[in-house]
Amino acid sequence: MTHDINKNRGGLARIVAFVREQNLLIILIALMIISTIASPVFFTVTNLMNLARQASYTGILSIGMTYVALTGGLDLSVGAVAAFGGVFLAYMFHYGLYSGYVVTLSPMFPTPVIVLVTLLSGALFGAFNGVLIAKAKLAPFIVSLGTMVAARGMAYSLAGGRTIFGIGPSLEFLGSGYVGRFPVPVLIWLGTALLAQLVLRFTVYGRRIYAVGGDEESARLSGVNVDLYKISAYVISGALAALVGIMMAARLDQGEPRQAEGWELDAIAATVIGGTSLSGGRGAITGTVMACFVLATITNILNLVGVHPFPQQVAKGAIIIVGILMQGLAGRRSKKANM
Amino acid sequence: MADSQYVLEMDKVCKSFPGVKALDDVTFSVKRGDCHCLVGQNGAGKSTLIKILAGAYPLDLGVVRLDGRQVTFRSPDQALRMGISVLYQELALNPYFNAVENIFIGRELSNRWGIIDYERMKREAADLIDPFGVHVNLNVPIRELSVAQQQIVALAKALSFDSKVVVFDEPSAVLTTEELERLFAIIMRLKQSGVTVIYISHRLEEIFRIGDMVTVLRDGRVVGTTPVAEVTQPDLVRMMVGRDVGMEFPARKGCPSETYLEVANVRAPGLHSEASLVVRKGEILGIFGLVGSGRTELAHAIAGMSRVEYGEIRLKGERLSIQSPADGIRKGVALLPENRKDEGLVLGMSVAENTTMPIWRRIQKVGLLDRRELRCVADTYVNKLGVKTAGLDYPVRNLSGGNQQKVVLAKWLAANSQVLILDEPTRGVDIGAKMEIYRLVVDAAEQGLGIVLISSELGEVLGLADRVLVMRAGCIVGEFDPREVDQETILARAMGVA
Question: Contact A211/B101, CB-based, under 8 Å?
Answer without folding.
Answer: yes
